[in-house]
């Protein structure tokens, strides 16, 4: 897929007094490990972010469909926590409980479900208070490909926010269900500051792609994440190896289709880890001009419906063959 | 538990607390709609004008996007 009529990366909006470069805040080039710092807000009522002004502009300039989904999603976040039932269900078999919970999450509307242990380094930004929960349940929600393949048009941005809101509501329901079993649980969707991708990677939902987004076998990058933290004893999943690295090392679909030229062909050193990284200072202007862009995730070959499973099989088979030849 | 408290989370339990919480939440929706409508319209009009005139629109000088002298 190619982007449909992307506008050129020529910007009218600018900062009169620019904040610190987003790449510096993100730790591009830093060799010491540290937690991520907040650059763009998740909780839009908080006003501490250095790049807050451009996000105020983005949301107030957005369509009513995008903006209303955002605000209603934030308001619905009031159901993210709640009272836990006094009768606590005893869990003899965490594996069986994990299976039941995943079935429940899918029944409630989640498309992908994975479980991992809570590690604060994966979840928290610098300066955040630690969590005391034991398990993180990552939930993935598919976007409508028929709408998203129009990225970067306005309707694609509307769809992204609609799915985030849907994900938040379902995360709330999963958390409510767990609390009805007598175990503490808290949903993290819209408007709640937490890192979602590292836990989703550890929980086996997918791998990090060159475009900085998660890639799953089932949906490519065409999905969004929410999270539920809980103490309910659960068996954890292992991280996935579906062959994303094998494709990303040579594929240039996102690199060549990014109008802002924000995606590098090589991994970068970011906060002490070499990883795929999207240039924030180039991306943010195009993103905020186009109601959320999304070109990179839609041109990704993994996002083509039905292709991911076959691509994964092909890449893993090729890797095995190469291993056999070299050994 | 997490140390994080969302803006709209109920701090107390009970029917009255739930009612107050719902009122607060939906008042926020209405106020934010009005802000989006009024301030957002000024921003959208000013931004389009800046685009047409080929001059910068400063996002840290909302809602008119012009530098404060």
Short description:
Chain A has 13 helices and nine strands. Chain A is an alpha+beta fold.
List the helices and strands and how they pair.
The complex is a heterodimer of chains A (327) and B (69).
Chain A: E1 13-14, H1 22-26, H2 52-60, H3 64-76, H4 94-108, E2 112-117, H5 120-123, E3 135-142, H6 145-148, H7 154-180, E4 185-188, H8 197-202, E5 207-208, E6 214-215, E7 223-230, H9 244-248, H10 253-257, E8 268-270, E9 273-275, H11 280-289, H12 295-299, H13 307-326
Antiparallel strand pairs in A: 2-3, 3-7, 4-7, 5-6, 8-9
Chain B: H1 15-53, E1 57-58
How is this structure best described in words?
The complex is a heterodimer of chains A (327) and B (69). The radius of gyration of chain A is 20 Å and the shape is globular. Chain A has 13 helices and 9 strands. In chain A, strand 5 and strand 6 (214-215) form a beta hairpin. A 4-stranded antiparallel sheet of chain A has the order 2-3-7-4. Chain A has a two-stranded antiparallel ribbon with strand order 5-6. With 327 residues, chain A is of the alpha+beta class. In chain A, helix 3 (64-76) runs parallel beside helix 7 (154-180) and helix 4 crosses helix 7. Chain B has 69 residues and is mainly α. Chain B has 1 helix and 1 strand, in the order αβ. Chain B has one helix spanning 15-53, and one strand at 57-58. The mean pLDDT of chain B is 81. Classes of the chains: A alpha+beta (327), B mainly alpha (69). The interface between A and B is large, with 39 and 39 residues. Strand 1 of chain A pairs parallel with strand 1 of chain B, so a sheet runs across the interface.
């Amino acid at each position: 897929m190619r982007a449909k009529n992307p506008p050129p990366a020529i910007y009218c909006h600018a900062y009169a007094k620019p904040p610190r470069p987003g790449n510096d805040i993100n730790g591009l080039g830093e060799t010491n490990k540290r937690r991520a710092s907040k650059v763009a807000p998740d909780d839009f009522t908080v006003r501490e972010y250095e790049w807050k002004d451009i996000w105020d502009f983005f949301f107030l300039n957005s369509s009513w469909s995008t903006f209303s989904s955002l605000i209603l999603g934030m308001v619905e976040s009031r159901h993210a926590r709640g009272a836990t039932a006094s009768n606590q269900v005893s869990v003899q078999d965490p594996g069986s409980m994990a299976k039941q919970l995943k079935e429940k999450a899918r029944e409630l509307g989640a498309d992908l479900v994975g479980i991992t242990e809570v590690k604060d380094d994966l979840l928290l930004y610098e300066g955040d208070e630690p969590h005391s929960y034991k398990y993180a349940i990552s939930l993935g929600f598919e976007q409508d490909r028929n709408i998203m393949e129009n990225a970067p048009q306005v309707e694609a941005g509307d769809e992204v926010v609609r799915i985030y809101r849907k994900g938040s509501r379902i995360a709330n329901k999963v958390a409510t269900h767990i609390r009805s079993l007598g175990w503490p649980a808290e949903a993290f969707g819209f408007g709640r500051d937490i890192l979602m991708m590292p836990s989703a990677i550890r929980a086996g939902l997918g791998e990090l792609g060159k475009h900085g987004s998660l890639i799953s076998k089932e949906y490519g990058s065409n999905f969004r994440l929410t999270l539920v933290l809980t103490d309910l004893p659960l068996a954890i999943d292992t991280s996935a190896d579906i062959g994303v690295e094998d494709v990303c090392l040579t594929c240039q679909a996102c690199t060549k289709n990014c109008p802002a030229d924000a995606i590098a062909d090589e991994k970068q050193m970011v906060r002490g880890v070499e990883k795929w990284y999207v240039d924030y200072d180039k991306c943010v202007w195009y993103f905020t001009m186009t109601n959320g862009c999304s070109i990179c995730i839609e041109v990704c070959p993994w996002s083509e419906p039905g292709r991911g499973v076959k691509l994964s099989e092909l890449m893993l088979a090729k890797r095995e063959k190469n291993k056999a030849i070299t050994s | 538990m997490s140390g994080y408290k969302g803006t709209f989370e109920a701090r107390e339990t009970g029917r009255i607390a739930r009612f107050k919480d719902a009122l607060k939440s939906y008042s926020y929706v209405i106020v934010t709609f009005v802000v989006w409508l009024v301030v957002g319209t000024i921003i959208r009009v000013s931004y389009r004008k800046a685009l047409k005139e080929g001059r910068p629109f400063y996002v840290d000088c909302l809602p008119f996007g012009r530098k404060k002298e």
